[in-house]
Amino acid sequence: MTALRNIVLFTCRGGRLAIDLRWVGEIVTLGPITRVPKAPACIAGVTNVRGAVLPVVGTLPQALFTGPSATVTPSHVGEGAPALVLEALEARAALPIDCVEAVTTLPVSHQHGDHVRFEDEDIQLLDIEAIFRELQRAVAATATAALARSPGAGKSPTGPSGS
Fold first, then answer.
1. Which of 34, 53, 52 is nearest to 44 (CA)?
2. Contacts 24+ apart (CB under 8 A), 143-146
3. Domains in the chain, please, with CATH?
4. Bridge partners of 125?
5. Strand ranges of the sheet holding 111-112, from the earlier edge strand across to the other edge
6. Beta-strand (E) ranges in the chain?
7. For position 71, what pLDDT does the model report?
8. Which of these, 106, 101, 109, lies nearest to 15 by C-alpha position?
9. How far is the C-alpha of 59 from the C-alpha of 40, rounded, in Å?
10. At residue 156, does pLDDT exceed 60?
11. What pLDDT band is residue 28 in, cutting at 50, 70 and 90?
12. Neighbours of 59 (CB within 10 A)
């Protein structure tokens, strides 16, 4: 029996990418995106999806992609854009895309490293856990930097003399 893998194929700025279907909770149309002051570039803002506030993925580091033109920065990030709601590492985030091309099942033999073979093309299969770890790292670094710049940074909570 052939092992199978369910994937979502989508485009961003004309480039084709793939995600394992198990990471996709739903496909939505984004509502208004609220920018978050001083948020890292990987967070475009937050949006409301059926009462849940979700971070919207912005620009991600090139290191997460193979090939010089690979990116997940869609042509349009904003209200009305399609997005994949991703779920990994006990977190959720909206990934804006240009469009979903297909939801399909492929034999595992069509996967070679971080690519899948579809319609005679090798398409990068995104590592969603790596993307979520990068989002968490960037947010933590931004929060740490903000705390270091805050007016009370480095002072004892009981006062300057420690009493």
1. 34
2. 146/38
3. 4-148 (2.40.50.180)
4. 18
5. 99-107, 4-12, 15-20, 121-125, 115-118, 111-112
6. 4-12, 15-20, 24-29, 43-49, 52-57, 82-88, 91-96, 99-107, 111-112, 115-118, 121-125
7. 52
8. 101
9. 9
10. no
11. very high
12. 14
Tokens of 37: 């002051």
**pTM of the model as a whole:** 0.79
Q: Name the amino acid, one letter, at 140.
A: A
**What is the average per-residue pLDDT within 82-93?**
91
Residue 83: closest CA among 98, 66, 104: 98
Distance set, CA 46 to CA 55, 78, 104, 141, 148 (Å): 4, 10, 29, 18, 24
Query: Tokens for 68?
Result: 């010089």
Residue 6's Cα: distance from chain center in Å?
19
Q: Residue 35: which of 25, 23, 47, 50 has the closest Cα?
A: 47
